[in-house]
Design brief:
12 helices
Length: about 260
């Protein structure tokens, strides 16, 4: 495949991703949410295309083409109007702009170089379990506390070195993680958000295809088109051996 054809394929994938995202967001909004009467029984959940177009102040044909993945341009103002109409939160709004090509995409680096100082910070966080990961959730490093906490996580050893893979494909994950459903939903939403800037990248596309083929659970969550930004959140772990160990008021687990 030539460089030009690769760019064309990536652009087509980006437009398809934008179309799918708009459809899922439209399906989540009920007429009453935006001040419209419910009217006659609807064949599908959510707003109709013509209702979105009217509320956002754009042409119906233009919006229909956008949802069909056609090669059309959208200004920042129009994208903001659509985001407001579809009641998108700030993370979804940014995701919409990225998919629509309204923000510059970061270039791809051939080699990822992590300064030694970063790994020193990672080690210094002991006794707090900590890990360093890429935007694709590949694990770059862990500290000793993390290694101790998850020493018995895999029955056959770690094969993927990726936070999402190692959670969604591990049979014991639900037993270890009492908030498993929320944890997985967040990880997939983070991956979806980061993917918007890497659509068409062969490694990203292959990773998502393998995940979808391996895990029906991932494929189902991925289809929801949910996105999330990095945030402070708690992740509870019910370690079979360490669960009875004391945790002091500062939240530090005494391993």
């Amino acid at each position: 495949m030539t460089e030009t054809s690769e760019r064309g394929a990536a652009e087509g994938s980006r437009r398809a991703e934008l179309a799918a995202f708009l459809k899922t967001r439209r399906a989540k909004i009920q007429p009453g949410d935006v001040g419209l009467p419910d009217g006659v029984r609807r064949r599908a959940a959510g707003l109709r295309r013509e209702e979105v177009a009217q509320l956002a102040g754009v042409g119906l044909s233009w919006y229909t083409w956008l949802e069909q993945g056609r090669a059309i341009n959208a200004s920042t103002q129009v994208l903001d109007a659509l985001a407001t109409t579809l009641r998108m939160d700030p993370v979804e709004r940014e995701h919409l702009h990225v998919l629509a090509g309204a923000v510059p995409l970061r270039g791809q680096a051939d080699d990822l170089v992590i300064p030694d100082a970063v790994f020193a910070i990672l080690r210094s966080l002991d006794p707090l379990p900590a890990t360093l990961a890429t935007s694709r959730l590949d694990t770059l490093g862990t500290n000793e506390a993390f290694q101790v906490l998850f020493a018995g996580w895999h029955d056959l050893g770690c094969l993927h070195h990726n936070g999402l893979w190692c959670t969604i494909t591990e049979p014991n994950a639900r037993r270890w993680l009492p908030d498993y459903d929320d944890d997985i939903a967040y990880l997939v939403a983070r991956l979806r958000s980061n993917y918007a800037r890497h659509i068409g990248d062969p490694e990203w596309e292959a990773n998502i295809a393998r995940l979808s083929a391996t895990s029906p659970e991932f494929a189902k969550i991925w289809a929801r088109q949910e996105v999330a930004e990095p945030c402070l959140r708690s992740r509870r772990v019910m370690h079979p051996d360490l669960v009875q160990r004391r945790i002091d008021p500062s939240g530090v687990m005494r391993l």
